[in-house]
Each structure stands twice: as structure tokens, then as C-alpha cells.
Amino acid sequence: MGPKGIQLIVHQPGRLYLARIHSDDLDKGKNNFEFYSGINLDNSPRWGDIRGKRPVFEDVNGAGWCVSAAYHPGFQRILLSTQHSQNAQGRIGIFEAPTPWGPWKTVEYFDAKEPFGLSRPGSSLPWENNVFFVSFVTKWFDGDKFTLAFTGAGRGKNNDSFNTIEETFLRQK
Most buried one in 52, 54, 69, 117, CB count within 10 A? Predict the structure, then answer.
């Protein structure tokens, strides 16, 4: 449970929307936000009111309540990560796109058979498959090397902490 009894769930279908507002208008209310509403003929984004909003990302298996997006300047790509299918079970999807509105391609998709962290070479520590959030640490991008921070729903017992993995991107030819 989250604040005030709100359930923190994976929303199905998983649709993510993008909104923007000028910093001078932040205190003027929600009606001042513009929402992504599609692509113009010249491939530029179209913005409008909430009635015309369109998702910038969709996953039929769901999108978690905790989402991360990071820009990798070397690859000139947005990296998006979210959980899917079931909350706090290591079912994490990692996606990439040239713009925040896509088109999105799957980089890695951890599922029930192979959840995030199932294979942990070099570690003999006990592990629970309760990860619900992963995020690329943009300050630590170094060419093809990256650091991924993650946390789990261990309620103070396991993975409910600041955890990191250092890895290298494998580029497709």
C-alpha cells in the first residue's frame, strides 16, 4: 500500500502520457499543461489539451507506478524503464527511443521465468525477486558503460535499498 491506502500497482494496459508546462506557469493550475497529442506531418510533436492526449508509450502487459526515463547523450537515445505484468516481482522492461514519444524498441524484457536479477554472477547473497524500479544513473554514463540503480519491495529486509549494477551496453550491428 502507498500513501493514504492507495495501491501501488502495475496499470494494465500500460500507457504513459507526456505533459509539459512553462516554468512560469507552474503555480497557475493544471489547465495550463499541454499534452502530447500526436505527430505532425513534418514529424514534429503536436501538443494540446488533456482531451486530445495520446500515449507516448504502451505495453499491453502494463506499466508500473514507478517509471524512469534518462537521456544518453552518446547514443542520443531516451532509455525508459518500468515494471510490467505484476508489481514487485522483478518483471522489468527497458526500452529505447530517439525521442520521448518514440518509436520505442525493447532493449531487455525480464519476465516471470527470468526476472530481473535471477542471474547474479559473483554474488552469493540471498535474493528476493521483488524489484519494482530500475533507473539509469545519467551522471555515470561512460561511453558504452553504465550504472543501473534499483530497489525492491523488501520492506527493509532485502533489496529495499540503493542497489547498483555496473554493466556495458552491447550494440547491435
Answer: 117
Q: Which of 105, 111, 96, 19 is nearest to 62 (CA)?
A: 111
Sheet holding 77-83, edge to edge: 68-72, 77-83, 92-97, 105-109
- Residue 137 within a domain: yes
What residues contact residue 119 under an 8 Å CB cut-off, 6+ apart? Answer: none
Collect contacts of 146-150 with beta carbons under 8 A, ≥24 apart: 146/72, 150/116
Q: How many CB atoms lie within 10 A of CB 31?
A: 8
Q: Which of 101, 120, 102, 100 is nearest to 110 (CA)?
A: 120
Partners of 169 in the β-ladder: none
Render pLDDT for 67-92 as a digit per residue (tens, 0 to 9). Answer: 999 999 999 999 999 999 999 999 99
The C-alpha cell of 93 is what? 522492461
**CA separation, residue 77 to residues 7, 31, 164 (Å):** 32, 30, 21
pTM score of the predicted model: 0.89
Length of the chain: 173
The grid coordinates of residue 39 equal 505527430
In a domain, 21, yes or no: no
| pLDDT, position 6 | 61
Q: What percent of the chain shows pLDDT beyond 90?
A: 70
> For the chain, what is the domain count?
1
